[in-house]
Amino acid sequence: QVQLVESGGGLVQAGDSLRLSCAASGRAFSGYAMGWFRQAPGKDREFVASISWNGGRTSYADSVKGRFTISRDNAKNTVYLQMNSLKPEDTAVYYCAARNGYGSTWYGDYIYWGQGTQVPVSS
């Protein structure tokens, strides 16, 4: 069992930067691939980024590539999402998730989820 708690969300303006954190507790965090997903009001949950267990492989949605960076610190049991040049269309609740094996873009592959943190981006 892995418990995930996101933090760092909040209201920002377009063009601002924000760093989300996801703290994990429970079973060996370093053994899990991690992902960030987001869900805007009235829309489906969508993939944002993923990272392998050792940080050696990352993947990004086209909509955030070049603006967002996922990273992890296994010594701190934490995964991060650095978000730069935020846009109003980035407004969503952001979730972190964990899965065995490699990172995946499909939310159904992830078995542990945090409660989410809201990121409203004003224009």
Question: Could you describe the 3D structure shown?
Answer:
It is a single chain. It is built from no helices and 12 strands. With 123 residues, the protein is mostly beta strands. The strands form 3 sheets. Strands 4, 5, 6, 9, 10 and 11 form a 6-stranded antiparallel β-sheet that branches. A 4-stranded antiparallel β-sheet has the order 1-3-8-7, with no helix packed on it. The model has no long low-confidence stretch (mean pLDDT 95).
List the SSEs and their pairings.
Layout: E1 2-7, E2 12-13, E3 18-26, E4 33-39, E5 46-51, E6 58-60, E7 68-73, E8 78-83, E9 92-99, E10 112-113, E11 117-119, E12 121-122
Parallel strand pairs: 2-12
Antiparallel strand pairs: 1-3, 3-8, 4-5, 4-9, 5-6, 7-8, 9-10, 9-11
Average pLDDT for all residues: 95
How much strand content do the residues show? over 45%
Please work out how many helical segments DSSP would assign. 0
Main structural class: mainly beta
Kindly state the number of beta strands: 12
Distance between the termini: 40 Å
- List the uncertain runs: none
Helix residue percentage: under 10%
Concise overview:
This protein has 123 residues and is mainly β. The chain has strands spanning 2-7, 12-13, 18-26, 33-39, 46-51, 58-60, 68-73, 78-83, 92-99, 112-113, 117-119, 121-122. Strands 4, 5, 6, 9, 10 and 11 form a six-stranded antiparallel sheet that branches.
What are its keywords?
123 residues, 0% helix, 4-stranded antiparallel beta sheet, 6-stranded antiparallel beta sheet, 12 strands, mainly beta, single chain
